[in-house]
Amino acid sequence: MTESATASAVFGRSSGHEQVVFCSDEPSGLRAIIAIYSTALGPALGGTRFYPYATEDAALTDVLNLSKAMAYKGALAGLDLGGGKAVIIGDPSRDKSEGLLRAYGRFVQSLGGRYITACDVGTYSPDMDLVARECTYVTGRTVEHGGAGDSSILTAFGVFQGMRACAERLWGSPTLHGRRVGIAGVGKVGRHLVGHLLDDGASVVVTDVSEQAIAAVRLEYPSVDVVDSASALAASDIDVYAPCALGSSLDDATVLSLRARAVCGGANNQLAHAGIEKMLEDRGILYAPDYCVNAGGLIQVADEIEGFDFARAKARAAKIYETTGKVFSLAEEEGVPPAVAADRLAERRIAEIGRLRSLWLG
């Protein structure tokens, strides 16, 4: 087993990251990158994404963006945790194995607690149980092993709280009753979100590239409508657009076609490039910053660190409603888009609390 970190310092300087580690174990087929953006507030917590990236550069770009978002997400959620992320390059349906996951666990362990891993796209709680056989810095484990289980439960709950904040800002009441919500991606998070919205009296239209995902949602919630693509969903007559699949879904074409009054979804890194937040603002579309509203999953797995209690974690995730409202208020006060306001709130907490680490403790 070897570790190649030759580019870590270069990427760390250019991107603001503290550490970037390239991991390779040829016998198991492991190729992974762990990125630690900040440990100013505490150890960097973030999930492991298992995805068939076309190139190592694409994987690196993704992990750098995701790890920074995790730092801001933890800060805005009020957690004493920094931000990190990991990606494993490969097709999880073909390449995932016990040997690969345990090799990955050895690399995480080698960081000595600077990075704590969890589930993400392509990885699940049973996978974390395998990682934990070689590593003590693991959350998102199965209930049988003392973990929180499926973190998408509170991710969806938090996104719903963010939508309630959007509704209050736009329509004067924190409910989606009578509104129409379009969900792009009904995997783990999107499916749970459908239930919250229907319970609140909203109507829901969905789309997904997976026919299995659509079939599962239709079986559980027969009243949902289905369209055949994300572009068709964005252009449809909806009040709220919820991107809940992979990132960069809000590009120029999508924003220009949107008819919704608000965007609030569970996907990470939704804005395809800098300037999209201004386009949304100019079109009068209220944007709930992704890392603000999708922090429920992070809150859930972070709660494992002190011994998981679902009621306590859910109560913390419910505060996403208040936090989203604070973001909107600051955006209005300072005359900036909500995405900029969220960054400012996160950066202020990182600076204010992070400086305490400079005080020596005997």
From TrEMBL:
Residues 149-358 form the Glutamate/phenylalanine/leucine/valine/L-tryptophan dehydrogenase C-terminal domain. SMART domains: ELFV_dehydrog. It comes from the Bacteria. The keyword Zinc does not apply. InterPro entries: Aminoacid_DH-like_N_sf, Glu/Leu/Phe/Val/Trp_DH, Glu/Leu/Phe/Val/Trp_DH_C, Glu/Leu/Phe/Val/Trp_DH_dimer, Glu/Leu/Phe/Val_DH_AS, Glu/Phe/Leu/Val/Trp_DH_bac/arc, NAD(P)-bd_dom_sf. Keywords: NAD, Oxidoreductase. Belongs to the Glu/Leu/Phe/Val dehydrogenases family. This is Glu/Leu/Phe/Val dehydrogenase.
